[in-house]
Each structure stands twice: as structure tokens, then as C-alpha cells.
Design a protein that fits this description.
By secondary structure, the chain is mainly α. It is 75% helix and 0% strand. The chain has two domains: 227 residues, no CATH class; 199 residues, no CATH class. The relative contact order is 0.13.
Length: 488
């Protein structure tokens, strides 16, 4: 498209075949997830193999902090996706732009505050985590640069989630590909130095991330403005950067419960590995490697769950409730197909896959294979839960998924693993996974069928300067909405 021509070709998630649209939307989201995991793995290889165990321990501790900080804003990013999706679905593009303006200001302010606090108190944070003494100097150097990069990371995540809410998952994928490629290429150059570039050690790995994400973000924003993207704020709309109270309230009150879901998952994982540690290093090694493979097995479900949120939100905004139900069924079907295929491959080739990380005939290998045999199939059911949660949160129903995850992980899985360990040993831990997953999918299905999520709302008040919107417009009504409709 020529740079001077406005981009009015908005991705349409409200019309057309649901299965094909959902698949084409989900694949770039899945690709982005894979790229992020690949990037982390490659960076760990450089640090672990060439800078030593202390440096790798430092990055591991720093990445736990980063995961927590990104998890906190994940929910608010998802709330942005849903608000933008509902507005675009109802063809209320002015509201979508107001969400972008409020979200941009909020993310910028929040990220600067968190970055400044983290940079100043980096040694105290690492000390509170009981980071090993030999890793502390490495961790301080690495983490302080990560905190400098945090505003870029937050805003990068915000822009990608906003675009997905608008129906575009391809643009975030291509710029994620650029970012990961740059990060992987810059890591050895900045760690070891080359020509005029000094050797920076572990700080070089963090700096590579800062440079890669900053450049990718700058190019993505430039690309959106050159295309005159419909969500890019023009000069006359810069007043939208002044936070709208109704939109800001929705981002926080709806986003925090979704962010807490990540906290429930990550905190239960920390408790679980502490239970496994009690059975010795071979058991922990087997569990750790099995968990590495589970990360990839879960990716299709997470991608489909995020995609059905964007797609369902647009259809909720358009009042197309018949399509919302079909999106849920289609998403569950894709989960069975994609996650089921990965689980089947894991059962068929688990020895080869685990052999990438473990000695082929060691005790840890036998432990990992045994764990996989018990746990792997349950991730298909986990995928059903994630897809249904993706649909229900598209309306603004965010508390029920949080409650379901808390029940299944903290009231079922962990007590089962801990209380029965005295009788069944580590077997209680492994069987707690499918038990917790089974409980979560039953509760998710019950809430989807009988819960009040269809009556939920993202906005409890009308944004400043906009007329009240019932969110129940028909497609015909939507096509006649305002000057910001198609072709404006």
C-alpha cells in the first residue's frame, strides 16, 4: 500500500467463515509465542555455555522477576484487546481510538514508575529472592538493563495486543520475528565484543534485548503511521492521550483479575517445584525437563485462547451472539486437533525429545518419561479450559476464570499433591496435574453453559465525549455507524 494512502482495510472477524478466520488469526499468535520461547532458550544457551553457571543462575533469577512484571500487565493488555475488539466490532472506531489513547498513557506512566523503582532497588530485590552470592554481581548488571528496557517491553506488548484487538495478528508476528532475530544476532556480538564493540559479558545479553525491542517497536509504530492505520492517533486526536476515567477504570478493574490468573499459575508452579525438590535432584531434573516440553505443548491452546478473545470481542460488539457460540465450538475443535497432535507426538517420541536435555539411559530420563505418561494427555483438557475462558472474558466476565483457576490449582492440585505424598510419594504430585485439570474443565464448561458471562460488560460508564452504546447493534446498524465507519 502506498505510504500516503489511508489504511481502511480493517481485518474482519465478524463476517465470513469462522474456522478459516480463526485459524489464520491464531497461527501468527502461535508463531509469536514460539519465537519468544525460542529467543529465551537461545539466550540461555549463550550465557550458560560461555559465561558459566553463576551467570546462568543470574539470568534465571532475573527472568523470574521479568515474568512476574510482564504477568502483572498481561491482564491490562488483554483488557485493551477486548475493549478495542468490542469497539471495532460495533464499528465505533472513535471509542477504539480513545482506548488506545488512554492505554498508551497508562502503560507509559506505569512502566516508567516500575522501571525507576526496580533499577534503584535491584540489589534488594535479588537479596529478597535469596539469589546465590556468586550470581549477585551478574544478576545486578543484567537486571538493571532489563529495568531500563521495561518501558519499551510494556509498550511493545501494548501495541501488539491493541493490534490483535483490531483484528490484526500478522503485523505483531512479523515485528516479533524481527525483534527475536535481532536479539539472537546481537547476543554473541555484545557478550564477546567484535571490532569496536567492547565485550560486555552478561550485560551484553540484556542490552541485546533492549536494542532489539526498541528498534522493532520504533519500526512498527513508523509502519503503522505510514500506512495510516485506523488505530493510529492523528494530531487532532492527541487529546485522547488524556486518560478517560471510564476506560481507565475498565482497564484496571477488568485487567487485574486477568493478570492475577498468571500469578495463580506461576505461584502454584513455584510451590509444586518445591515439593518435587524434596525427592532429590534426579526427580527434579526429570520434572524440569518434562516441564520444558509442556511449555511447547500448551502453546496452541494459549494461542487459540487469545485468538478467540479477540474474535469473540468483535462479535460481541457487533451483537453477533450466534457467531460467539460457534467461535467457542470451533476453538475447542482446533484445540483438540492441534494440542492433541502435539500430545500424541510427545507420547510417540518422548525418549527422543527428552534426550535433547537428558542422558538417554539415566534415572532422570525414566522419571521424565513416567511423568509424561501420567500428565501429558491432560493438556488437551487444559486447552478446552483456556478456549472457554477466552470466550467468556470477551464480554468482560473476568472473575469466574480467576476463581476456577484458584480452585483447581490451590484448593485441588496442591493439597492433593501435599496431603497424599506421605502415602503415595511423588506419584501424588504427578496425578495432581490431571486431577486439577479435570476439575478446571468441568467448572469452565459449567460456567460457559450456565454462568452469566453473556450479560457482563467491559465498560460500566460511557467514555468521555461518546454517546451511550448498548453493545447490541446488529450488523446492519453497525454498518451505518458514524463518520468513523468503513471508508472514512
Amino acid at each position: 500500500m502506498p505510504p500516503g494512502k489511508p489504511d481502511n482495510s480493517r481485518p474482519d472477524l465478524v463476517n465470513g467463515p469462522i474456522a478459516r478466520t480463526l485459524l489464520l488469526f491464531s497461527l501468527p499468535v502461535l508463531g509469536s509465542n514460539v519465537l519468544q520461547s525460542l529467543n529465551a532458550s537461545v539466550n540461555a544457551i549463550w550465557v550458560g555455555h560461555y559465561l558459566g553457571e553463576a551467570a546462568l543462575t543470574a539470568t534465571s533469577n532475573a527472568n523470574i522477576i521479568l515474568f512476574f512484571l510482564l504477568g502483572v500487565v498481561f491482564g491490562i493488555s488483554m483488557a485493551t484487546t477486548i475493549l478495542v475488539g468490542q469497539a471495532v466490532g460495533s464499528r465505533n472506531i472513535e471509542r477504539a481510538r480513545r482506548v488506545v489513547g488512554t492505554g498508551a498513557s497508562f502503560f507509559a506512566a506505569l512502566s516508567v514508575l516500575v522501571a525507576a523503582f526496580g533499577y534503584m532497588f535491584t540489589p534488594h530485590i535479588l537479596s529478597a529472592m535469596h539469589t546465590p552470592a556468586d550470581a549477585i554481581p551478574f544478576a545486578i548488571s543484567y537486571l538493571r538493563i532489563i529495568f531500563i528496557a521495561l518501558p519499551v517491553m510494556y509498550f511493545y506488548n501494548f501495541v501488539m495486543m491493541t493490534l490483535r484487538g483490531g483484528g490484526d495478528s500478522r503485523t505483531p508476528f512479523f515485528f516479533m520475528l524481527l525483534s527475536v532475530g535481532l536479539d539472537i544476532a546481537l547476543n554473541p556480538l555484545l557478550i564477546f565484543g567484535l571490532g569496536p564493540l567492547p565485550a560486555m559479558g552478561i550485560a551484553g545479553s540484556a542490552l541485546a534485548t533492549l536494542i532489539a525491542q526498541s528498534l522493532s517497536l520504533l519500526l512498527m509504530i513508523t509502519y503503522l503511521y505510514r500506512r495510516k492505520h485506523f488505530l493510529a492517533l492523528r494530531s487532532k486526536e492527541l487529546n485522547y492521550l488524556r486518560p478517560d476515567p471510564a476506560i481507565l477504570r475498565a482497564l484496571v478493574t477488568k485487567g487485574l483479575p486477568m493478570g492475577l490468573q498468571m500469578l495463580v499459575i506461576s505461584s502454584s508452579a513455584l510451590v509444586m517445584i518445591s515439593l518435587v525438590n524434596g525427592y532429590g535432584s534426579q526427580m527434579t531434573a526429570g520434572y524440569g525437563v518434562a516441564s520444558q516440553l509442556w511449555t511447547y505443548v500448551q502453546m496452541p491452546a494459549l494461542a487459540i485462547g487469545a485468538s478467540v478473545s479477540s474474535m469473540a470481542a468483535q462479535n460481541v460488539g457487533a451483537g453477533r451472539w450466534d457467531r460467539v457460540s460457534r467461535i467457542a465450538v470451533t476453538g475447542v475443535g482446533f484445540n483438540f486437533l492441534l494440542t492433541g497432535a502435539l500430545v500424541a507426538l510427545l507420547y510417540l517420541f518422548d525418549h527422543a525429545a527428552l534426550g535433547l536435555f537428558l542422558p538417554r539411559e539415566g534415572e532422570a530420563m525414566q522419571v521424565a518419561q513416567h511423568i509424561n505418561n501420567i500428565v501429558a494427555w491432560s493438556f488437551v483438557l487444559f486447552g478446552v479450559t483456556m478456549v472457554l475462558f477466552g470466550v467468556v472474558r470477551s464480554t468482560g466476565a473476568v472473575m469466574a476464570p480467576l476463581v476456577v483457576l484458584f480452585i483447581s490449582m490451590w484448593l485441588i492440585r496442591l493439597p492433593f499433591a501435599e496431603l497424599l505424598a506421605s502415602r503415595y510419594g511423588a506419584e501424588a504430585i504427578w496425578w495432581s496435574f490431571p486431577l486439577g485439570t479435570l476439575v478446571s474443565v468441568i467448572l469452565a464448561l459449567a460456567y460457559y453453559r450456565y454462568g452469566g458471562w453473556r450479560k457482563a460488560h467491559m465498560l460500566t460508564a460511557t467514555p468521555r465525549g461518546l454517546a451511550a452504546d448498548t453493545g447490541m447493534a446488529t450488523p446492519a446498524m453497525s454498518s451505518m455507524a458514524g463518520k468513523d465507519g468503513p471508508g472514512s
